[in-house]
Amino acid sequence: MVARCLSVLLCVLGAGLALTAAAQQTGVDLAKARNCLSCHQVDKKVVGPAFTVIAQRFAGSEAAADYLAQAIRDGGRGRWGPVPMPAQPQVSPADAKLLAAWILSLAEPTTAEPQAKE
């Protein structure tokens, strides 16, 4: 009985990890398809900031996904330096939301406060 429960638990955990990996790949594929990677990279600055840096800036903000989706479509200037981001109206609102959610998923998890040793 314990072995069966453990098997089920491991399968559920494995499926969750597979879904996370698939979502990450889907985000990268969508970013490639919408030419985001012409100016951004996942982990380094090119013309625009790295997606991981954007994710860190907005980590924990409830309005971040909607804000980023709108910024993708409308563009912006002065938020990340002197080079403005041109509007991307060819990116559908649905794709902009998917891209924003993927970018936000790249934030480093916050570390818990270290516990005092007894």
From TrEMBL:
InterPro entries: Cyt_c-like_dom, Cyt_c-like_dom_sf, Cyt_c_ID. It comes from Pollutimonas harenae. It comes from the Bacteria. Keywords: Electron transport, Heme, Iron, Metal-binding, Signal, Transport. Residues 22-107 form the Cytochrome c domain. Residues 1-23 form the signal peptide. Binds 1 heme c group covalently per subunit. This is C-type cytochrome. The keyword Transport applies. GO terms for molecular function: electron transfer activity; heme binding; iron ion binding. The keyword Glycoprotein does not apply. Pfam families: Cytochrom_C (PF00034). Heme c binds at residues 36, 40, 85. SUPFAM superfamilies: Cytochrome c.
